[in-house]
Write a structure and sequence with these properties.
This is DUF488 family protein. Pfam families: DUF488-N3i. It comes from Gilvimarinus gilvus. With 131 residues, the chain is an alpha/beta fold. It has helices spanning 44-51, 57-70, 76-84, 101-121; strands at residues 2-3, 14-17, 35-36, 87-91. It has one domain (2-121). The chain is globular.
Length: 131
């Protein structure tokens, strides 16, 4: 997790912006981004309530996680990037560790774990019997 305003480093791996709004004062060509996943960020309503202090930290986390659970497809590009190597989630927030990114990170890890466990429960293909 990192601020979008920090310079890219080779250890960052795939850099994905996970904010609903584009960061102020930044051009797309100067950010070394692989992707902008705005649908993986908190909805406008959740974000605005959070910034107006209408939600506790727990309520924000619950609402955002519910949003992610209702739209699991928004995690697919993030999961794909994580499976290929290092993934750095980017935000314009001043404190990424106190933003939505830890919740998003946990959701990605949970989805990867569920996908891995789901693969183990079912056979890869139906069993064929020779008569």
């Amino acid at each position: 997790m990192q601020r979008i305003y920090q310079d890219a480093a080779p250890a960052d791996g795939t850099r994905i912006l996970a904010d609903r709004l584009w960061p102020r004062g930044k051009r797309k060509d100067e950010l070394a981004l692989a992707e902008w996943c705005r649908d993986a960020a908190p909805s406008t309503g959740i974000r605005q309530c959070w910034h107006r202090n209408e939600l506790t930290e727990a309520a924000f986390g619950h609402a955002y996680r519910h949003q992610l659970d209702q739209s699991p497809e928004c995690l697919v590009p993030l999961m794909r990037a994580a499976r290929q190597g290092s993934l750095t989630l980017l935000t314009a927030s001043k404190e990424p560790e106190n933003s939505h990114l830890p919740i998003l990170r946990r959701a990605i890890l949970d989805a990867l774990h569920a996908e891995d466990n789901g693969d183990r429960d079912d056979p890869a293909s139906p069993v064929c019997f020779r008569s």
